[in-house]
């Protein structure tokens, strides 16, 4: 048997039993195990882990734990520079792109509204989610820990909130997305990149009252939907303004 002392930090505690949150605890392992397998057996998925210290030394996920060792497990912290350490977490993607599971359809629309390339379908299989996330270097957002713990998944996150608007705030904060936002650049329905359209181009494709009121339109080349700055646009702008306030009040 291998006897260990372990402590998790920050939001990684969300995955632990209540009595193990925010404290160092004793844990017994039968046989040899890797750091990755040990961490995930206790709850946290590996994509949310950034640094692991064993007896004060940074190690990678393949490190085999030994008897009497002390482990400290850290999430990604935007305010702490961990560059000198061995990081198990991947570097941030230059342009965040997302892949969402079946339960996050409304969140997918909100991310597209902010201009993020976001894939979502209501019939993705678990293995397809893991493969697409890996092959296309997309951040997998899912509330299915089993999917997030698949070895193919490199970039991923488990939204804690259940309300889509709160999930959006959570994801924007976690991945520091405000600087990458390009609002109203993508089709909320299908993820296509929107292009400008003249009133003549959308003639007969929008209600007459809209045609008479607005002069600027956007259209999706994929699904052919037409968008304009109506009341729904104004409500979305309120959300965008609130998200930008996070830069001043994190």
From TrEMBL:
Task: Output the superkingdom of the source species.
Answer: Bacteria
Q: Which Pfam families does the entry link to? A: Mut7-C, Ub-Mut7C
- Occurrences of domain Mut7-C RNAse (ranges): 96-239
Entry's Gene3D superfamilies?
A: 3.10.20.30
Please list the residue ranges annotated as the Ubiquitin Mut7-C domain.
2-81
* SUPFAM superfamilies (UniProt xref): MoaD/ThiS (SSF54285)
Listed InterPro entries: Beta-grasp_dom_sf, Mopterin_synth/thiamin_S_b, Mut7-C_RNAse_dom, Ub_Mut7C
- Transmembrane portions of the chain: none
Name used for this protein in its record: MoaD/ThiS family protein
Organism (species): Archangium lansingense
Per the UniProt record, the lineage of the source organism begins with: Bacteria, Pseudomonadati, Myxococcota, Myxococcia, Myxococcales
């Amino acid at each position: 048997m291998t006897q260990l002392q372990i402590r998790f930090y920050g939001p990684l505690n969300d995955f632990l039993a209540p009595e193990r949150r925010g404290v160092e605890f004793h844990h017994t392992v039968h046989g040899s195990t890797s750091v990755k397998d040990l961490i995930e057996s206790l709850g946290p998925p590996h994509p949310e882990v950034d640094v692991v210290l064993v007896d004060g030394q940074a190690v990678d996920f393949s490190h085999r734990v030994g008897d009497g060792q002390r482990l400290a497990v850290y999430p990604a912290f935007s305010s702490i520079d961990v560059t000198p350490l061995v990081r198990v977490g991947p570097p941030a993607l230059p342009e965040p792109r997302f892949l969402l599971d079946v339960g996050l359809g409304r969140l997918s629309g909100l991310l597209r509204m902010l201009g993020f390339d976001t894939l979502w379908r209501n019939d993705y299989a678990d293995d397809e989610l893991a493969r697409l996330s890996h092959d296309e270097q997309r951040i997998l957002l899912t509330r299915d820990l089993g999917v997030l713990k698949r070895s193919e998944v490199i970039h991923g996150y488990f939204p804690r909130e259940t309300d889509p608007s709160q999930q959006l705030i959570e994801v924007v904060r976690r991945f520091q997305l405000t600087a990458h936002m390009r609002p109203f650049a993508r089709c909320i329905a299908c993820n296509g990149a929107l292009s400008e359209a003249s009133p003549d181009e959308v003639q007969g494709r929008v209600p007459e009252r809209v045609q008479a009121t607005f002069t600027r339109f956007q259209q999706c080349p994929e699904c052919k939907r037409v968008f304009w700055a109506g009341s729904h646009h104004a409500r979305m702008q309120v959300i965008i303004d609130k998200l930008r306030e996070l830069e001043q009040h994190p």
